[in-house]
Amino acid sequence: MKKSLLVLALLFSLATFSQSPVDKSFPPEELFALGSYYYPEQWDSSQWERDLKKMSEMGIKFTHFAEFAWAMMEPEEGKYDFEWLDRAVSLAEKYGLKVIMCTPTPTPPAWLSKKYPDILIQRDNGVSIQHGRRQHASWSSDRYRRYVENIVSRLAMRYGNHPAVIGWQIDNEPGHYGVVDYSENAQLKFRIWLQKKYGTIDKLNDTWGTSFWSETYQDFDQVRLPSQQEVPDKPNPHAMLDLNRFMADELAGFVNMQADILRQHINKDQWITTNLIPVFNPVDPVRIDHTDFLTYTRYLVTGHNQGIGSQGFRMGIPEDLGFSNDQFRNRVGKTFGVMELQPGQVNWGVYNPQPLPGAVRMWVYHVFAGGGKFVCNYRFRQPLKGSEQYHYGMIMTDGVTLSPGGEEYVCIAQEMKKLRAVYDKKNRMPKELASRRIGLLFDMNNYWEMEFQRQTDQWWTMPHIHKYYNLLKSFAAPVDV
């Protein structure tokens, strides 16, 4: 009898040991979790408890802190203040909310940009992108990376064992808004990247076809990042392809570096992710491989006159969610969530309609049906000032009234309770459906090449790929991208 008990105990401990941090945070029997962005730095501290309590009462399971708060954490070089964040995390814990903690690297503080202008991105016209928005620091700057290492380490040491913190998001939508960095840091790193890739300048010349138009290089030091500003026509297409690959590697290296720093300090129950904009230069998800899984950002209603039917522009394009689900589910970790999903109108679209009633709920269930672990909506409260002032939240400008999207999230939370009550872990996808599973190959290298060398101005790569994707889905075929 004692031996049997010991065997059972061992099996239980092995099962517990083998459970991933992601499964601990989002256990299968919970089915799906709802989260929301909250910015304590934007609100009077007297309102934090009311807000986080309200969030919990709405059925939200986790909140999301600090991705834009470097200036609050380090208001002066070497002087740190985490007490405000300690209080916010404690209040979240008090009301049963788990926390996704973020590294604040998309928003370096003003003192850093002022003291060290060499960390800034430079456009191809020679103008440096200055402090005043976000994502203006260069991934290629070794100096910037040292400051990143410092703030990420301090954050990880402080919250790496906090019971309320379930995981970490690195940066926020890393991508520099698609802007290519032409700083001297980037120029140097590009030449090093080329030398590593090709070995000899002759190999580069042969691959790029530089014998035409006398483009031939005699030395890697002669090569510059290709720029439309510096040539009278389109740059060499092979140079442009390598430019995109280089930027994607710099981005991935920046994210992977932060993941490695976090691992040195956080406990094994906390996971690491980042949130990416799907099919967006210079993002290539397959290059980011030091995280536990990847998440993505999606804004479906941004004023583009697309979608199904006369009200499609208020619902979005279905394949934008479906394709992203099937793409991110098959990346590192074999799981995913949607880290940003709008709960209402945005402020930055072509024009900014309200989503059709029921659209927000539809999007969330679309992610759930696609195998996602969670949706985190952006954002809990609509800001009263500053950037994104007119971006809706789940709570309106008075700080207490639910927005239409907020009401839909409450509805979803209640429905999830009912679904959990009938969950059966033995259930599997019907064999007839599973037998139709098919893979769709998609590669960012091909995407970059087709976009740069379009044979007609009427060609757009993703709508073409979506035609194949939609055809497969019309057969009720599960798709892996």
TrEMBL record:
Q: Name one Pfam family in it.
A: Glyco_hydro_42
Question: What keywords sit in the KW lines?
Answer: Glycosidase, Hydrolase, Metal-binding, Signal, Zinc
Glycoside hydrolase family 42 N-terminal domain ranges (all copies): 38-419
**Provenance organism:** Bacteroides xylanisolvens
Q: How is this protein named in the record?
A: Family 14 glycosylhydrolase
Q: Which GO terms describe its cellular component?
A: beta-galactosidase complex
InterPro entries for this protein? GH, Glyco_hydro_42, Glyco_hydro_42_N
Q: Does this entry carry the keyword Metal-binding?
A: yes
Signal peptide segment: 1-18
MF terms (GO), sorted A to Z? beta-galactosidase activity; metal ion binding
Query: Tell me, which GO biological process terms does this entry list?
Result: carbohydrate metabolic process
Q: Does the keyword Signal apply?
A: yes
Q: Which domain of life is it from?
A: Bacteria
Q: Which Gene3D superfamilies match?
A: Glycosidases
Give the lineage.
Answer: Bacteria, Pseudomonadati, Bacteroidota, Bacteroidia, Bacteroidales
